[in-house]
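Researcher: Structure prediction, please.
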Amino acid sequence: MEVCQHHLDQLRDPEHMEGGRLYDRDVDNAAGKIVSGLSLQRLVELESKTNAMLRSGQPVDGEFWDLVLKKIHVEKAIVRECFIPYIYH
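Model: Predicted structure follows.
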């Protein structure tokens, strides 16, 4: 469901979609590299640290880290979906 919601959000905001006025391939790739290949446990830890950093009041690139959070949510959903069949077999 999270993966579908991510794609729906992109469709609702075409300026942030690939090819859109506000889309930056390098930024999208950098955010993706941060979460790519992480275990569910590492994704949960990264999500917690990212949320804490965003709430800390420190100067950070909020848009970038919000994008990282979105990618964490999608990646967690993918990891869970891929892991579920192995639990029941």
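Model: Residues 62-87 form the longest helix (26 residues).
Researcher: Thanks, that helps.
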